[in-house]
Amino acid sequence: MKIPSKDFKDQTDQTNQTAQNQENSGQREPDRVNTMDDEDRQRAAGLRAEKFHPALWIEGQRSSSLAGKTVVLGVTGSIAAVRVVELARELIRNGAEVHAVMTDAARHILHPDALHYATGNPVITELGGRVEHVEFCGLQGRADLLLIAPATANTIGKIAYGIDDTAVTSFATTALGSGMPLMIVPAMHESMYRHPAVIENITKLKSWGIFIVGPRLEEGIAKIAANEEVVLEVERALGNKSLEKRRVIITSGSTAESLDPIRILTNRASGKTGKELALEAYRRGADVTLVHRDWLGLSGIREIFVESAAEMTDKVLSELETGYDILISAAAIADYTAEPSPEKIKSGGELVLRLKPTRKLIKECREKYPDLVIIGFKAETGVGREELLERAAATLEGSKLDLIAANDVEKSGMGTEDNELYLLGTEKGKIRHISGSKRKLAAIILEEAAGLLK
Ligand SMILES: Cc1cc2nc3c(=O)[nH]c(=O)nc-3n(C[C@H](O)[C@H](O)[C@H](O)COP(=O)(O)O)c2cc1C
Fold first, then answer.
1. Which of 113, 170, 328, 432 could, after both became Cys, cross-link 423 (CB 3.0–4.6 A)?
2. What is the pTM of this model?
3. What is the mean pLDDT of the chain?
């Protein structure tokens, strides 16, 4: 059973109120705190102290994607334990409440005070009369997820064989038995990672439905996955599943048309919107493909590198043959291309470029896939609201889109962190005006996209 922080706040408010009433009236109010037994009082006092731990001032500063979620962070004896101070902070920045539990080997690498500071909660280093493993991961446990990061070869092996002889393995045994999601982030030398038993154990854990994140094989080390990747996987495991089992393909950023082997013709699109759409679709459980001329590098998201408008159109069309539910065309695809010179064009003199129009990606996709949900973007400059909406409505209809997001990029959009968009769907006259961070806007667009699926 979770103890929502709200309940705790109410309790402290009550106590403060009681104290105030006593001061103001000189009369003693019924002392509600006395209804608590000693253990409850100690617990509330403990919670109160931790609630105001300065480390928690960052709570929810990045997003509220994990608000109301309790994550138990199991730390084992890998040198990568030094990385999880920042991981705990990232989970808190996205709204999670984090409690750490450490093995003895982990305590030789990282002092529990570092994780007490990072999480704002006392660290569990051994189990006591509170049966912490049951309190957090039992059938009615407070936790939503047990995240073991880093996970040593030793702890992975123990979990695979049901061995329970450290604080972390006791949490794992309890979480597995109660059906609580368990996520494991291995970290070790590559030589350890290649051991047949380790490979077999990880395969076994996957077959039990345990999420395995990473590792990244670099410099002869099976390195702990990046914090950004772990947080994304936690958000996917605990978040809204509105796109689960759906396939979403997203084009992003700018394209580049070759003028010669060195020079390109491109535009100012940064790819931030496309990236946020891909991350948000992934958080919502989708199978995501991102087509762009950039690199995101998150193992859950499939990326296809393309450069020109023609390459982007060809790759999206061939990819769609494998079956997708949603296409989001967020890339600023070049409208014009050139016949590239095979040699570097000599500099110095005046140069006249002859440009020809590119193929229209959305038009070709719609012709081939009449039932696909297609979402487009319309960027205009220096037009008033009415003109922008009229042009967006014409594109929506002409290109047979399901939804269009229109913006005046002179105000914001290209390369900015925030944006302002108008969303127009096929329902006449229904316009949604949204503004904020590109992450927030991506969440709204994907919520609309999920609603468009049959
Ligand atoms: C400095 C140091 C770094 C270590 N790094 C790793 C590691 O990255 N991965 C791993 O599997 N074991 C690593 N070990 C070995 C484990 O600490 C050892 O297997 C220990 O028994 C693990 O216990 P635990 O799984 O209960 O934490 C390291 C040991 C030391 C001393």
1. 432
2. 0.85
3. 87
